[in-house]
Specification:
With about 250 residues, the chain is an alpha+beta fold. The protein is built from seven helices and twelve strands. It is globular.
Length: about 250
Amino acid sequence: MVFKNKKIIIGLIGIFVLLLAGCSNNKSTTKKENTLPSAKTILTKAQNTKFDSMHTTWNETENGQTIQKAEAQDPTVIYANVATASNHYKMWIEGKNNYIQMKGTSSSHWFKTKLGKSSSYAVLTDSLDNMLDPFVATSKSFKVKPNGNDYVLSYKGNNKKIWNAIVSDSAITALIGIDLDNVKPINNEIKIDVDKSYHITDVKVLSTYKDEGQKRTFTMNADQIDQIKNLEVPANVKKGAVDLGKMSTNN
């Protein structure tokens, strides 16, 4: 009888130990979750990321058909390939110089122009470096999750402040402008990946909206940050480009 009572006591002790261990694990898990940095902290620190290089794509569709798309590399020297339903051009930007080649025309020449201060392309180099600035004020709308030792910020919804941040962000809209006169936002999704040092590794923006009654979707992806060799304008483009500034001076 004593032996049986001892077994019962030992069994109860074992259960008690397991319960304590479970509580301890729950506490440590909760503590780990509670130690995640806030979205404001991540966005504030991540916006200071300075890029040596990146790859960025933009795409706008209407009823599933692409109507605008663009691709660019590097925020210091930029190469862009932009296509719309009625136009297609390739472009290099270096400092204040813009080299452009219009596709589908009778000439395959590259042309050289100067970028004006008001040009959306002129501010692209700076805006890519500061792409998260407009979202700092909306940090309470973002959720933070761990990704190993790194962090993921995400947002999904139709918050007006988020929409305003998206359309005010030159990095997101510089190469594909959105006409806001008749636009009605439907849904926005944002995903921002940062490493444990708060350096941006990936940014994805997806917005759905109605423009003059037509449903459109806009996406912008920035990735391969600091993984691309710094670009240089090809020598043949610089040498062969027709300088439109000199032509207008001569005339």
